[in-house]
Fold each of these.
Amino acid sequence: MKAVILLSGGLDSSTILYKAQADGCECHTISFDYQQRHRRELQSALTVAQKAGIVKHQVVNFDLRQWGGSALTDDAIDLPQERSLHEMSQNIPVTYVPARNTIFLSFALGYAEAIAAERVYIGVNALDYSGYPDCRPDYIQAMQEVFRLGTKQGREGEPINIVVPLINLKKTEIIQLGNQLGVPWELTWSCYANGDVACGVCDSCGLRLAAFAELGLVDPLAYAS
């Protein structure tokens, strides 16, 4: 069974790659260089893909900086730092990139149909404190209908399925799953800041560090703070 895996190099996407392999899929990974602030993640995506034995890792290039609208695509917008989990859960943060997963899934769908894949795996998580609108179950259900109606495969009764194994898992549960699957956490990258070492204070770093700490585990990734 062929599957396209959206791989950012982060904790969640690396876990779904290993999950797809455990599901018996022939995995084809795809990453996106959209000139994001944290382009360092692309290095981790490639390294994780190589570690997992992926022969061909695709990178799609486009530039969302021309639109801005997010702290990840506009350097004039400050990254939130040192926020509590309660603060993160109050509203959709400035790190939300407008329609990002819709853009990503559109590319993944085209790639999947071109290679006659049956599945697209994406590491969205509805329980994450970020609360991004394009990480929620109703959004995935709507995109599944797009996959069915917008492709030859779908119209012929064999739609490409969107697989979201992490959507209802806590961050701690994702780490536990990744540990079972052998995900190399030291190769992953979650930080939103543009640095060679993870900052340790942005929302993404905070969520990750809090989950490892809750499990009584040490995150093997190096942090500046």
Amino acid sequence: MTTEPGSVALAAGDWAVTIDPARGASVTRLVFAGQDLLADEPAFWMIPWANRLDGGRLGQHRLPVNRPQDGTAIHGLSRDRPWQVAAQAPDSATLAQEVDAAPYRYAARLGVAVTEDAFTIDLAIINTGAEAMSFGAGWHPWFRRPPGTRLMFRATHRCRHDARTLPVAADLIHGFSGGEEAFLGLDTHFTGWDGMARIAWPGLALTLEATGALATNLQVYAPRDRPVLCVEPCSHLPDAPNRPDLADLGPMRRLAPGEILTGRIILSAECSHLP
């Protein structure tokens, strides 16, 4: 597998992973048994918040609105900043990032590893600022979506949203299971997620397991005009600080100086037939 200069390539068993530190530590290639699991978009990190903040509002603070068409600050600060490779081996690596962008100051650390059984990512974020701040995180993979793709997970609530996909209400559900008839066109948030999701493609099934801060909320994005399926573990509800009636379904976590937010994602896969 060829890689871009400066990228981190890991391999073990049937897994091969490429990470680009210069592009926010995004996963640019994810392969199992010779099959690409990602579409052409990199899987990036959303830190120190996930999804959108209306008007960039975070309490008394105002964050840069980087999605002017809907007036929101989207997907945090880390994805637009480089990470440093602190350690690397053939099957594992550690990446680190320090961000000083008022009102946020934080250090983030990623431990990534592949084994014969799984690809694992461990995330830690520490508030290095002088004041307590609300923090959150999420991972935004762009999985491919060939005909016959199915998605299954358990959650307690499905959010209704406005035209900007900001949540306005939540309905009780018993989980989610279906193909394109169920998910096509979604840009929808689910709460009360149990941390497990399964994507089934013809001949291949992927299980995503999240723990820690990343195991409570899930965003699903399946645009009609692109063959992608984003299944995004998140620590909080979109725009949680500005949605007091819904924030209990997924609040951001207020970290005192020196406090840490952690989460883990484990991807495992199985083929019904190998290429």
Amino acid sequence: MTDEMDNKDLAERVRLIENMMAEGRQRTARWGWSLVLWGVAYYVATAWASLGKSNLAWPATMTAAALITAIGASRMTKGQPATTLSRAVGGVWRAMGISISILLFSLSFAGRYETHVFVAAFGAMLGMVNLASAIMLRWKAQYVCAMVWLISTVIASFGSDQATSVGFLAAIFLCQIVFGIYAMVCESRRRRSGVVHA
């Protein structure tokens, strides 16, 4: 009888964990708009820095994107209870955002914005945060994003200027724009099906 109870208890716990991860993926999918926003911001900053040769391109663009994200986040989270998993995933992303902001501001204002170093560090940080989220949420699509960002880091470390730029722009497109749109589609389908989680 005890073995049977232990197996039922274990199965119940596994189901609970799986439900928590599914809910975490759904909550993360609600943030698809911010992935697209940041992808567009990365493109704007890249174009501005390349064409305008301005050290203010990245800090100014990232500050604007951060303000828009903060406004959107305050509206999204109003009245929504936070779970341990959502706090963990959100905390990892906020920590990365702060770290990458310090990196961008420092490189820009010091005049040490070197493409290979920048893309390698940027890709590593975005690879790390996507990988951490993918591990917590067990979301295969986000694993793919993590690998693409980490590949862009390797390309930036060993590749030519052109390969570095192409790798970076491709990673932005696939991991920010495409993944963000995918997340928004997942969220839209969930809403249409009437599935609502607190």
Amino acid sequence: MIFHGYYAEIPRAEIDRFVRSQELGRLVTLGQDGTPHLGLYPFVYDDGAVDLHLVRSDEQIADLRARPRCLFEVDETLAVIPSYWVHPEYAGSATAYHRTVIFECEGTVVEEPAAVAAQQQRLLARYQPEGGFRPLAPDDALYRGALAQLAAVRLGITRVRAKFKLGQNRPVETRRKVIGELERRGRPNDRRAAEALRWTFEGAEPADGAGSPEASS
């Protein structure tokens, strides 16, 4: 992925807000033979780390024990637009809009039931704050079997790379035109994409360059 400055210079507070708004993220680990392994998980993001849980027999647990360096990626696919919204003839103006954050991490794995239960409480506090379940306890027969099969994974973040590809290399007038086209087209994510493009000039200070081919960047 190419991290052009006009896409990548995102305030950390906005990165944090975006990551916390997403419900699933991708963990990338490396197998013994060099094969990347990918998993999609619910998570808690706080204090410079990501918390998630895996089954102890998951291949990614073995990866993390042997090779703790990993990636955790959160993204949001917004829209693909036709070239003629930007230029009447140049096909290279077709592009896709998305927000992506990649965390480079060092992973730790804990299997102690009390630690796993504590992490599950944090996950439940995020995803099911209304309750509706019996409190977790490692010695409760209701939970003992499941907790014995899970591992708590904590990913300490060592580097953050963001790419919010939202037309920042186009003049504000062009972005306004694309916003109008998105709102008229009305696909399921188009309104969300329009709001994201609007953020680039109402909620941030993007670079207003003359533009460059976007199709492959």
